[in-house]
């Protein structure tokens, strides 16, 4: 049996930003973004628009040592950086629920 009532669970807002990064700075940029608490997903796009790497992140993942566990992903990022002079990095961020707009 299913319920027809709407879900009232409030989720934070999320938005996507896209930046262009040179290949030699890609690994450092991804590591920096992974350390930010608001970043939920990082996608690295090839110059033709195809997604080369899609990295989902969770809250506290970096604090829990995910960077050490993500060594294969970082190695893949290094290979991508060697092939392309510039790539686009798509960053999905989530806004904290603390900010409420006042009417």
Describe the structure.
The protein has helices spanning 26-34, 66-69, 71-83, and strands at 14-22, 39-45, 51-56, 86-94. The protein has 103 residues and is of the alpha+beta class. It is built from 3 helices and 4 strands; from the N terminus they run βαββααβ. The longest helix has 13 residues, at 71-83. The radius of gyration is 17 Å and the shape is globular. 9% of the residues are buried.
Poorly predicted regions are 1-10, 99-103
| Class by alpha and beta content | alpha+beta
Number-wise, the strands total 4
- Look at the structure and give the mean pLDDT: 75
Overall morphology: globular
**Quaternary class:** single chain
User: What's the alpha carbon Rg, rounded to whole Å?
Assistant: 17 Å
What is the string of SSEs from the N terminus onward? Answer: EHEEHHE
The helix tally amounts to: 3
Beta-strand proportion: 25-35%
Main sheet: strand order:
1-4-2-3
The helix content, as a percent range, equals 25-40%
Report how far apart the termini are. 39 Å
